[in-house]
Amino acid sequence: KESKPWCWYCGPEREFEDETILIQHQKNKHFQCPTCHKKLNTATALKTHCLYVHKEEITRVPNARPGRDVFGFDVVGMDGIPDEDDLDPNKKAKTTPSTPAPRS
């Protein structure tokens, strides 16, 4: 069974039919300005927008689960998910070294 796209900010239980719908969800739920409701493309863009347009600093990504509500990750759709949170077994297989590290 092929896994569906899921929202890193909400958690893997929040799946979507395709990545376009996932990105739309992220813009509506996680990248929307709490002051003027403008929808931005990334969490960093939201933080920058709030600082420069409204002179307000936001410290958490809106509506994100604890631990994933911090700025510093620009996850858009399925791109940018930190390796430790990536649930795609094919991706992990490609990044896992096939030979052990040399001993020192």
From TrEMBL:
Any one Gene Ontology cellular component term annotated for this protein: nucleus
Q: Which UniProt keywords apply?
A: Metal-binding, Nucleus, Zinc, Zinc-finger
Where it sits in the cell: the answer is: Nucleus
**GO MF annotations for this entry?**
DNA binding; zinc ion binding
Disordered: region residues: 80-104
Enumerate the CDD domains for this protein. SUF4-like
All copies of domain C2H2-type, residue ranges: 31-59
Where in this chain does the record put each BED-type domain?
1-61
**InterPro entries, sorted:** Znf_BED, Znf_C2H2_type
PANTHER family for the chain:
BUB3-INTERACTING AND GLEBS MOTIF-CONTAINING PROTEIN ZNF207 (PTHR23215:SF0), ZINC FINGER PROTEIN 207 (PTHR23215)
By what name is this protein known?
C2H2-type domain-containing protein
Native organism: Hemiselmis tepida
Classification of source organism: Eukaryota, Cryptophyceae, Cryptomonadales, Hemiselmidaceae, Hemiselmis
